[in-house]
């Protein structure tokens, strides 16, 4: 009996030994496979990690700023509204506000806060759901810069690995600085500097404790905690941030109590474009060369515009249009352009009465008949052939065959009477059509067209006599630069940008225009000034004699009072004004250049 029992015991031991010999290798195999799988997973997960050294060339999308010549900010151009500020320019209490809310142990961990992770897990278990995250500021930075916003174990593993690498290569202050420049704060504000302006109208360096606390509260859910959308939730979240700053020793009781009393902002600070027609023109000028960099590279664009003159121009247009409205001329548009006679730079541009209603720029895009404001080009062509202001020309009935031989064109003077033999100076001063056509016939219409091209007019001028009276369409921009040539003898390129520097202050380019080209001799300039001054002293522009400075110019009116013009200059600026309707309907009876456009021109020039 005892022997059988012993045999059974031995058999059982053998069986156990046999099973163990089988199970143990299996366990070892499973462990090996698991380790292999895990190692393979880690290798796969980390194989496409971005290089942390890329941060050394960190260049976030940053707003470009456009300035006037007198250093007024005209606009921000952006995809993401952001102005990068170095970490050492951000006050410590601003950094502390974010650390208190997002990562209280920021200065103690090495990218991953295991203490916080355990605490977050406990809180989640108690709540029966995901209520608290364990991501550090470094992890959030890694996610913002390098990873897609997806919820997955793979992303969390990569996030942790990147965070450790970031912490190894960069200081804590550099990390918090990158985080604050990258974070999104709602209301189209990216980065702490743009957020400070958007919410408080100030720079990040001037934020108070309460303001910093509010901004620290927003990135978690920008719409939910926006003071402009959910004031109470925003207040609660801000006060929570202030309390966390106190708990972490970043502020004292007195600062805590004072911060709680500060009101929330009620409206965002947004920059509307100043001088919007000009700004649109500048963007169109630069987009071919800079493409998306114009909106993302943090450029500083210094333009030729004088903002004081721009405001005077806008006032003058409003002034003139309001007078026309009082005369019953409703829905009339007006445009004004002023050009510097020393540089050719655009100093003021108003392309219409309201850019936000219509972006059509009547300075650069509207092609209209210039009427009598084109006539000085005919007279310049004559001076270039040896005529002088006191030479006599004939003002009387004259006819020309049109495109079809059956068509006969007979130019009529505005007052429907002829003056006979008159000096050239008198003919232009009184805007005599017949005399001008007579002179154009003597000079040759082809020579008139060539003179217009020499002055920089690129619009097509039809080779027929009505073109001598301004029957061919062109822009106000072209005409003003032509008058700048009358004043100086030089043809200027259309200059709107003085210089462009990059985000580091390095000059990218200077003056996007060639030097002016001398095209008229001194005698021709003096002759042009003589006849254009006669327009003011004795002709259709006599109202301008009231101006304190010496001015020169020419009125222009087209058939049926569709377009009214005044083009002229003083010693500093060439300025042109157009008045009309976009649909080419008449402005109204007797609304000539002298009556509709000259008052706007004078209002601007008296405030020059």
TrEMBL record:
InterPro entries: Beta-lactam/transpept-like, Glyco_trans_51, Glycosyltr_51/Transpeptidase, Lysozyme-like_dom_sf, PBP_transglycosylase, PCN-bd_Tpept. The keyword Transferase applies. Its main location: membrane. The chain crosses the membrane at residues 21-44. This is Penicillin-binding protein 1A. Residues 72-245 form the Glycosyl transferase family domain. It catalyses: [GlcNAc-(1->4)-Mur2Ac(oyl-L-Ala-gamma-D-Glu-L-Lys-D-Ala-D-Ala)](n)-di-trans,octa-cis-undecaprenyl diphosphate + beta-D-GlcNAc-(1->4)-Mur2Ac(oyl-L-Ala-gamma-D-Glu-L-Lys-D-Ala-D-Ala)-di-trans,octa-cis-undecaprenyl diphosphate = [GlcNAc-(1->4)-Mur2Ac(oyl-L-Ala-gamma-D-Glu-L-Lys-D-Ala-D-Ala)](n+1)-di-trans,octa-cis-undecaprenyl diphosphate + di-trans,octa-cis-undecaprenyl diphosphate + H(+); Preferential cleavage: (Ac)2-L-Lys-D-Ala-|-D-Ala. Also transpeptidation of peptidyl-alanyl moieties that are N-acyl substituents of D-alanine. Keywords: Carboxypeptidase, Cell membrane, Cell shape, Cell wall biogenesis/degradation, Glycosyltransferase, Hydrolase, Membrane, Multifunctional enzyme, Peptidoglycan synthesis, Protease, Transferase, Transmembrane, Transmembrane helix.
């Amino acid at each position: 009996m005892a022997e059988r029992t012993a045999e059974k015991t031995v058999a059982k031991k053998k069986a156990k030994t046999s099973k163990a010999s089988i199970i143990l290798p299996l366990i070892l195999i499973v462990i090996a496979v698991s380790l292999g799988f895990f190692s393979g997973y880690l290798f796969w997960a980390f194989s496409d990690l971005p290089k942390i050294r890329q941060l050394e060339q960190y260049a976030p999308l940053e707003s470009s700023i456009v300035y006037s010549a007198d250093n007024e900010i005209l606009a921000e151009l952006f995809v993401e509204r952001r102005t990068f500020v170095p970490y050492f320019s951000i006050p410590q209490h601003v950094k502390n506000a974010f650390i208190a809310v997002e990562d209280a142990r920021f200065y103690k961990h090495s990218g991953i806060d295991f203490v916080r992770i355990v605490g977050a897990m406990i809180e989640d278990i108690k709540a029966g759901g995901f209520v608290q995250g364990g991501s550090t500021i470094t992890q959030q930075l890694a996610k913002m810069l390098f990873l897609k916003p997806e919820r997955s174990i793979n992303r969390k593993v990569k996030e942790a690995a990147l965070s450790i690498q970031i912490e190894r290569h960069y200081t804590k202050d550099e990390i918090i600085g990158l985080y604050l420049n990258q974070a999104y704060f709602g209301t189209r504000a990216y980065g702490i500097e743009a957020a400070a302006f958007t919410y408080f109208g100030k720079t990040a360096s001037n934020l108070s404790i309460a303001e910093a606390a509010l901004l620290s509260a927003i990135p978690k859910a920008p719409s939910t905690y926006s003071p402009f959308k959910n004031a109470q939730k925003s207040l609660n979240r801000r006060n929570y941030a202030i309390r966390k700053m106190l708990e972490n020793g970043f502020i004292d009781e007195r600062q805590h109590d004072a911060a709680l009393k500060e009101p929330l902002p009620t409206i965002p600070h947004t920059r509307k474009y100043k001088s919007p027609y000009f700004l649109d023109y500048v963007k169109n000028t630069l987009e071919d060369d800079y493409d998306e960099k114009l909106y993302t590279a943090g450029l500083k664009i210094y333009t030729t515009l004088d903002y004081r003159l721009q405001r005077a121009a806008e006032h003058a247009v409003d002034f003139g249009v309001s007078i026309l409205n009082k005369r019953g001329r409703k829905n009339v548009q007006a445009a004004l352009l002023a050009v510097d006679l020393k540089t050719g730079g655009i100093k003021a541009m108003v392309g219409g009465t309201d850019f936000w209603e219509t972006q059509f720029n009547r300075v650069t895009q509207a092609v209209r008949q210039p009427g009598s404001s084109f006539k000085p080009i005919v007279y310049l062509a004559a001076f270039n052939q040896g005529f002088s202001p006191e030479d006599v020309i004939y003002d009387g009935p004259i006819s020309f065959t049109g495109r079809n031989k059956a068509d006969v064109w007979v130019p009529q003077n505005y007052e429907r009477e002829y003056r006979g033999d008159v000096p050239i100076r008198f003919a232009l001063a009184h805007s005599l059509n017949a005399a001008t056509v007579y002179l154009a016939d003597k000079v040759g219409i082809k020579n008139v067209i060539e003179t217009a091209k020499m002055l920089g007019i690129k619009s097509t001028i039809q080779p027929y006599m009505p073109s001598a009276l301004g029957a061919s369409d062109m822009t106000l921009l072209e005409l003003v630069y032509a008058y700048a040539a009358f004043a100086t003898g030089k043809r200027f390129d259309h200059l709107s940008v003085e210089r462009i520097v990059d985000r580091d202050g390095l000059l990218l380019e200077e003056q996007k225009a060639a030097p002016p080209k001398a095209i008229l001799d001194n005698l021709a300039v003096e002759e042009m000034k003589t006849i254009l001054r006669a327009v003011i002293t004795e002709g259709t522009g006599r109202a301008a004699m009231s101006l304190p400075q010496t001015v020169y110019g020419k009125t222009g009116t087209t058939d049926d009072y569709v377009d009214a013009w005044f083009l002229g200059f003083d010693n500093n600026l060439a300025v042109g004004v157009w008045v009309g309707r976009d649909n080419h309907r008449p402005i109204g009876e007797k609304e000539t250049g002298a009556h509709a456009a000259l008052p706007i021109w004078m209002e601007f020039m008296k405030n020059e």
